[in-house]
Design goal:
Strand order of the largest sheet: 3-4-2-1-7-8-6-5
Number of helices: 6
Protein name: DUF7982 domain-containing protein
Keywords: Membrane, Transmembrane, Transmembrane helix
Structural class: alpha+beta
InterPro entries: DUF7982 (IPR058288)
Number of strands: 8
Pfam family, one: DUF7982
CATH class of the largest domain: Alpha Beta
CATH topology of the largest domain: Threonyl-tRNA Synthetase, Chain A, domain 2
Distance between the termini: 55 Å
Oligomer: single chain
Radius of gyration: 17 Å
Shape: globular
């Protein structure tokens, strides 16, 4: 019992520090501090899933997940972001890829202006190019995917992502099933979540699970991907996303 209590305390400390670092980074426009904060919150969440009895404390996990989502929603609302998140595959400026939320639905994107130090992209010729860069959001989960895959996901295709994401998320209790259907210019993704989720929030402020799957798809296909809709169905959360072309198109 004492061991479990210590883990809960450690989780709480990680989450509080994560929130503080994220807010500090947000106010200072510092990507490094923001990413550290997000990582802290995520690690705090994950600690809840590793009890000595291998029991996932779902109520606590869902509470933390909600705080995580609310923090990002605050960023998005305060910046009046209207666009839907774009998942960028790794390239020279962003070696781990990234998630970019455009200021407007009618957007333009110049990948040459992004780098790992970018948070708010405002120094651009057109307002259409403005937005918020979240960095490789869900990156810790992607690292788990690649550990399970025993290699990089670059160029592996959508079926590899379906297999590895499904296995890892199922083992962590975060999703029961992941299904990916690829068409010429789009994806249909079904995630049967293992915890309570609010899919309508994921269009602009994605949760780590959805973000990790979409960012892995961008990595595996070399395509920028924009998620167009998240809908709750009887069989899970259905995500519809479109391909935006490779990195070269947006440089």
């Amino acid at each position: 019992m004492r061991d479990v209590e210590n883990k809960d305390i450690a989780s709480g400390i990680l989450i509080v520090l994560g929130v503080l670092l994220s807010v500090y980074g947000f106010l200072r426009s510092n990507q490094t501090w923001t990413n550290l904060g997000i990582a802290g919150i995520f690690l705090g969440t994950v600690v809840f899933t590793f009890k000595s009895s291998k029991y996932v404390k779902r109520d606590a996990l869902q509470g933390v997940w909600g705080s995580y989502r609310d923090l990002l929603s605050t960023f998005s609302d305060n910046l009046y972001l209207e666009g839907k998140a774009i998942y960028i595959p790794p390239y020279r400026n962003l070696p781990r890829g990234g998630v970019f939320v455009p200021l407007h639905e009618d957007f333009d994107l110049d990948l040459a202006r992004l780098d790992e130090g970018t948070v708010f992209l405002t120094d651009v010729p057109s307002e259409k190019q403005m937005g918020l860069l979240l960095g490789p959001f869900g990156g810790r989960l992607i690292e788990k995917y690649e550990e399970h895959f025993e290699g990089s996901l670059k160029g592996t295709g959508s079926q590899a992502v379906e297999s590895v994401a499904g296995s890892v998320l199922r083992s962590m209790g975060l999703a029961k099933r992941v299904y990916i259907e690829e068409e010429e210019d789009s994806f249909r993704i079904v995630v049967d979540p293992g915890i309570k989720c609010t899919p309508e929030n994921c269009e602009r402020t994605p949760c780590p699970v959805c973000s990790s799957i979409l960012l892995s798809l961008a990595t595996a296909t070399g395509e920028l991907i924009q998620a167009e809709s998240f809908e709750r169905k009887d069989y899970g959360v259905e995500i519809k996303a479109r391909k935006l072309g490779g990195v070269e198109r947006w440089m």
